[in-house]
Amino acid sequence: MSIIASELKLYGSAVMADNDSTTAIGGAIITAIKVEFTDITPSGLVEMLSSAAGDITQTVTIYGRDNTGAIAI
Question: Measured in whole angstroms, how far is the alpha carbon of residue 28 from the centre of its chain?
């Protein structure tokens, strides 16, 4: 049986890292923190940032799904 997006409830956790140094991620569910994912339009932009100015030759591949649910690169 399929579900629809409105049936999904995504909650945060006690520890939600926003850096690369936190290691004890997770813990208790915090119902006051709601997690949301938003589709970008076909002409939408995704920005990649680095803390090192010398990072100029990296390649990034972004995977997602199109409106039929098929994986799109």
Answer: 20
39-68 exposure pattern, b = at least 16 Cβ within 10 A, e = fewer: eeeeeeeeeeeeeeeeeeeeeeeeeeeeee
Q: Identify whether the C-beta of residue 14 lies closer than 8 Å to the C-beta of residue 28.
A: yes
The pLDDT-based confidence of 71 (bands split at 50, 70, 90) is: confident
Smallest CA-to-CA distance from 64 within 25, 44, 34, 18 is with 44
Handedness of CA 26, 22, 62, 46 (dihedral sign): positive
Q: What is the pTM of this model?
A: 0.41
Q: Is residue 50 very low, low, confident or very high in pLDDT (cuts 50, 70, 90)?
A: confident
